[in-house]
Every structure is written in C-alpha cells, then in structure tokens.
Amino acid sequence: MTEPRETHGAEPPRHSRTQLRRAVLSSYLGSLIEYYDFLLYATASAVVFSRVFFSDLDPLVGTVASLGTFATGYLARPLGGVVFGHFGDRLGRKQMLVITMTMMGVASMLIGMLPTNEQIGAWAPILLVLLRVAQGIAVGGEWGGAVLMSAEHATSRRGLWASFTNAGAPSGMVVSTLALTLTAAATTEEQFLAWGWRIPFLLSAALLALGLFVRLKVEETPVFSVAKPAGRESMPLVEVVRRHPRNLLLAVGVGFGAFVAQATLTTFLIAYAVDAGFERQTVLNALTVSSVGAVAGIIGFSALSDRVGRRPVVLAGAVAMGALSFALFPMIDTGSAALLTLAVILGQSVVHPAMYGPLAALYTEMFGTRTRYTGASLGYQIAGTGAGLAPVLFAGTLSATGGSGTMAISAMIAGCCLLTVLCILATKETHRSTLTDDGPASGSQPYTAAQRES
What we know:
By secondary structure, the chain is an all-alpha fold. The protein has 20 helices and no strands. It has helices at about 15-45, 50, 60-90, 95-110, 115-120, 125-150, 160-185, 190-195, 200, 205-215, 220-225, 235-245, 245-275, 280-310, 310-335, 335-355, 360-365, 370-400, 405-425, 450-454. Helix 14 (about 280-310) packs antiparallel against helix 15. The two termini are about 40 Å apart.
C-alpha cells in the first residue's frame, strides 16, 4: 500500500525568511532546553547520583549503577523517535515539538523533587529510572522535529540552519554545567548533596515557559504543509523500513561513532577524571569551556559542509576522533589540570563537531518528506544508544580490570569511529539536493540559482 503523491508540483512551498529565523531560534532554544535537562542528568549521574540514590553501594559499583540509569534515557530515545515521528509525519512538526518540550520540562522538575535512597529506599532509583525514560522519550521526539523545522523552512545553507539544533546540545551542557557549578559554589559539600543539586532541575520550569513562548510563534514548515498526504493508510515507520532500509542502517552507522565519542567526552571522561583525583570544579570548568567551543565548532563545520559536502567533513572528524581516543586517557593520567582541559577541548570543541555537526542536515536529506520525521529521528536515536551504552561498558571495563583498561576503551572508541568511516563512505552526497522530492534526496535535484541567492 503506497501513500498518495505529494502535490508540490501544483502548489510550491512558500518560504518566509521571518519564519526561517523564528524556526532556527525555536529549534536552537528548544534543543538547548531539552539537552539542558537531559545532560544535566548526565553530569549529575557522574558526580552526584551515585552518592544520593546509590549510597549503599561500593563507590565504583555505585558509579556503574548511576551511569546505568543514565543509559536508560538513551535506550528510550528510539521509542520517542518512532512515536513522535509517526504523528509528526502525519499531523505536523510543530504540535509534536510542543508536547516533547513540555514532557521533558515536567520530568526534570520531578527529578528535582525526588526523595533519596535514604528516604524511600529502593523506590528512589526506580522512580529515577522511570523519569529518565520519560526524558529519553521526549528528547527522542524533539531532535527530529527541531531539525526539520529549520531545514524545511530553509531554501539554502541547510547545513548551517539545521546545525543550530545540534548546537543546542553543547549549549545545554554549558547552561546545565554552569547551573550545577554555581549551585555547588554557593553551598557546602553536605548542602549540595542534601538539596543543592535539586535547584538546577527545578529551574527547568522557567526554561520551559521561555521555550514554549518562542515555539508557539513558529508556523508549520512550508515543505510539510504542501506535502501533507490526503490518506492515512500507510505508517511512516513501515515506509521507512520497507522503502529506505539501507538509508536507515547507514544513518545509524554514521552517527554511532559520534555518539560514543560524545558520551566519552561529556560523561565517562568526567567521571574518570573525578575518580582519578581531580577536583569536581576543575572537571566541570573544563567541560564548560569545551562546550562553549563545541557550539562554534558545530556551526562552523556544518556551514563548511554546505560548501564541500557532508561526507568529507564527517569523514575527517571520524578519523581524527579515532586517533585522539588513544591520547585522551594518558593526558588525564598525568594529573595536570591543563592537559585535562586540553584533552576535553580537543575532543569536544574541535574533533567531535566535525563528525557530529553535519548530521542534522544529512539525516534530513536521507528521507522523503512524508517519512522524514520518522526516518531521521529513528536513525539518529538508534545511533544515540551508543552514547547511553558506552559509559556503562567503559565503567564496567575499568571495574573488571581494576582501573587499567583504558587502552581497551580507546580501542573500542576507535572501532566505533571506523564504523562511521565505512558508513559515510557508503552514503551518497546530498548537500545540494532539495527536500521537496518524493523519496530521499539523491543529489539529483540541486538548488536553483534563486534558492542559492536567498
């Protein structure tokens, strides 16, 4: 059973530069807020939760358990991509984005109110996992819709405009890390563990109000408005699996290495440095500086991909990350705060943005309009499970080897980068294709001269 043809030939999409600016701002702020909440949990799981919700366990085992709850959010993200992708391809991008933002904000506020292990026993980690799953479902539906809101409003420089959604992730990391840092500076260690860590989660209420205010001012994308099907008999998920299985698998493979690297740099490396004896504030400072650099790196490399193509930029980033993975742990093991900061900056601000930034536009271009939300979200979020599983696997490796397994961890990171290299080489270049075709972009429909000038 096939879907009815799009009607873009009779009614071409009407693009507005005002709506493009609003869409980009909305996508950036929405992504920032979503990842503020999502990555706030990541930072807290590395430095707080093992002592608050798993206080009855050995410290190293508690860290593994804490990172395990962190992983559940990533495992839930594909479900969010499927559910919100389905309705986003059927009903529109905007409606789903309002729901995902609200869902994330509420879950984060509830985490900030959650009783500890000492207060309610085993119910504390159970409820923590359930709220983490809700966060995962929300962010799983958010990314695809936010990327599409920017990309489908754009007529040129799609890599640049779509990249602001990806730039929201390190921006959210900056805000969440600053929130934890300022809270920690204003409280004693005992106060921070008792109640201080809750403040950044409760601040989600204010961010949610701001995000919804901006998001409600954005119109539905012109590409979707024209392509909206007349019938509802085909499911986007079935269409993606049946018509574009190769693109889906390539999307997963291309992004997997980037997510493993991301989790290594923003979560596992942080926990490793703290366990190695660095002051928590020193580690958080390095993470903050590198996250600021990542925003510029993601936007810059994505803009470059509009000129030279998505494939060469992602390829260069993956090769560089594979090489850097063998230098990260030795730099931290020196005990030098300067080398710790340099390692995190090289990874998160320079190398990782090259393999991660262009993915927003690339995933958008790999699927047709009526299955784009589902296809892009599913490929991205399945790849994202690598970020959830990697810290747990790495922490388990360290635990099993008594802390001497860093070379094996570096080899695993490099192997994941090799997967990215192989998949990006098998992916067609799409940076000059349009988004109004019936199937995935193939590079056969370049921008018109008018579009390039707009």
